[in-house]
Amino acid sequence: MSDNATEDEPSIEEQIAAYQREFRDLDPQVEQVVSSLQRLNRRMNVAYGRQTATLGMSNAEWEVLQALVLSGAPYRLGPGDLAKRLGLTPAAMTHRIDRMVGEGLVTRERDESNRVRVIVELTAAGREKWLEVMRLATVFEEGLLQDLTTTERALLGELLTRLLRRVEDAQPDAEGRLSDLD
């Protein structure tokens, strides 16, 4: 087992060898890229989860803060818009917003121009929490890419963006989740 594998998980090389044993048509280069991306994504999610947990929040709450910040000032969206952006059901979004209102990260109020519509808005405390997570994430991400040159970082970013576009073009509804696990 290589140094990069865990006790319970074979190395990428071991995984490819096992797959090739069972499926001879496997392209080992493709499998190396795809398996590495999957493992990297999983491990990064764990790392981000640990960081948000140190600040008393979940990755799920972080996603809402991020969506509100990305919407631009005044950092307001309807629950339906948030649910769509995060690939959640309206019920799951309501549950998430309820928790965040209770924690003072967002407010939820009726839209004065349309009393049927509800608006979720980032609070000052929510924005500060977002900034704290960003500070931690920046340190983690810089460390993650520390061995890459500026040119390599640019190339990696370009290549990953191309892969992302390929998936988005082939699966335009793949931005969300298959199910909400919150």
Structure description:
The protein has helices spanning 12-22, 28-54, 59-70, 79-86, 90-102, 124-144, 150-170, and strands at residues 76-77, 106-111, 114-122. The chain is mainly alpha-helical. Strands 1-3-2 form a three-stranded antiparallel sheet. Strand 2 and strand 3 form a beta hairpin. The longest helix has 27 residues, at 28-54.
Question: Oligomeric form of this entry?
Answer: single chain
Give the helix proportion (percent range).
Answer: 55-70%
* Largest sheet, spatial ordering of strands: 1-3-2
Largest sheet: 3 strands, antiparallel
- Helix/strand order: HHHEHHEEHH
Q: Could you name the ranges where pLDDT drops below 50 across 5 or more consecutive residues? A: 178-182
Which overall shape is indicated by the principal axes computed on the Cα atoms? elongated
Radius of gyration (CA) equals: 20 Å
The helix tally amounts to 7
The average pLDDT score comes to 89
Structural class: mainly alpha
Strand-residue proportion: 5-15%
- Number of E-type strands: 3
Q: Tell me the span between the first and last alpha carbons.
A: 34 Å
Short description:
The chain is mainly α and 182 residues long. The chain is built from 7 helices and 3 strands; from the N terminus they run H-H-H-E-H-H-E-E-H-H.
